[in-house]
Specification:
It contains five helices and eight strands, in the order ααααβββαβββββ. With 227 residues, it is α+β, with helices and mostly antiparallel strands. The protein has a domain at 107-214: Tumour Suppressor Smad4 (Sandwich), CATH 2.60.200.40. The strands form two sheets. The protein has a six-stranded antiparallel β-sheet, covered by helices on one side. Helix 2 packs across helix 3 (25-87), helix 3 packs across helix 4 (91-105) and helix 3 (25-87) crosses helix 5. The protein starts with 5 loop residues before the first helix and ends in a 13-residue tail after the last strand.
C-alpha cells in the first residue's frame, strides 16, 4: 500500500500559494496561519537569543553595558530604517520611529490604575477603537462604539526597552507582556511621582497628578438627510 503525505514534503508557503492559484479561499486563509505557526519557533529562538545576549552583557559589563549596547543597536540598526520609512511617508513606520526615539530619550513615568502600578514611556488614549493594534494606531472604522482605546507600553522591567525592540522586530509587540491594550468606557490613572504633562492631539499642555476619562455614549444628537 502506498500512502501519499504531501504535507510532509511541502512547506506551508507552497500549500498556500497552490490554494490561492486554485481558488480555494478557506485553504488559503488557513495557510496564512500555518505560515505563521511554521516560522514562529524561529522568531521565538531569536527572541531568546537577544535575551541571552543581554544577560551576558550584564554579567560582563553591568547594566551600563546593556544601556550602551541598546544605544549602539538603535543608532546602527533601527534609526536608519525608521528614518527612511518616515521620509517615504509610511505613517505606521513613522510612528514606530517616534516610539523608538521616545524610548531612548524621554523620562519614564510611573502610573497607577486598576490597583496596579507600572512605569511607562508611551501611553495612548483615543476615542473609539483604533486600528491596527500596537503603537502605530492610524484609523477608526467608527466613532460611536462608546469605548476608549487605551494602550500602555511598560518600560520598568529588566531589559524592557531591548525586549520591546526585539518584539517589534519579530512582529510580536502585541503579544509582549510589556504591551497593555484595553477598550473601556472609562479610565483613570494617578501619576505616582507627582504631576506629569498630558498631550492633546500632539500638543503638550495640561499638567496633572491624576486624570479620569469617560465616554458620554450617544450624548450628541446627529441629524442627516435620509438616503
Amino acid at each position: 500500500m502506498t500512502t501519499s503525505r504531501s504535507d510532509w514534503v511541502t512547506t506551508a508557503r507552497e500549500r498556500t500559494v497552490a490554494a490561492i492559484r486554485e481558488g480555494r479561499i478557506e485553504d488559503a486563509l488557513a495557510g496564512v496561519d500555518a505560515i505563521w505557526a511554521e516560522g514562529r519557533p524561529i522568531h521565538d529562538f531569536y527572541g531568546d537569543m537577544c535575551a541571552t545576549f543581554c544577560d551576558f552583557i550584564a554579567q560582563e559589563l553591568g547594566e551600563d553595558g546593556v544601556e550602551r549596547a541598546w544605544r549602539y543597536l538603535g543608532e546602527k540598526l533601527w534609526k536608519p530604517v525608521f528614518a527612511e520609512a518616515s521620509k517615504a511617508g509610511g505613517e505606521a513606520l513613522a510612528g514606530l520611529y517616534a516610539m523608538f526615539h521616545t524610548l531612548r530619550r524621554d523620562e519614564p513615568v510611573r502610573i497607577s490604575y486598576d490597583n496596579k502600578t507600572l512605569q511607562t514611556s508611551l501611553f495612548f488614549l483615543g476615542n473609539s477603537t483604533y486600528l491596527p493594534s500596537g503603537f502605530a494606531p492610524s484609523r477608526r472604522t467608527r466613532m460611536d462604539d462608546g469605548l476608549m482605546d487605551v494602550r500602555i507600553l511598560e518600560t520598568g522591567r529588566k531589559f524592557s526597552r531591548l525586549r520591546i525592540v526585539s518584539s517589534l522586530a519579530l512582529g510580536r509587540l502585541t503579544r509582549s507582556p510589556l504591551y497593555h491594550e484595553m477598550r473601556v468606557p472609562e479610565f483613570a490613572f494617578t501619576a505616582v511621582d507627582g504631576c506629569t504633562e498630558l498631550a492633546h492631539d500632539g500638543e503638550i499642555g495640561t499638567e496633572c497628578d491624576e486624570a479620569r476619562f469617560r465616554v458620554n455614549y450617544r450624548a450628541l444628537p446627529v441629524f442627516r438627510p435620509l438616503p
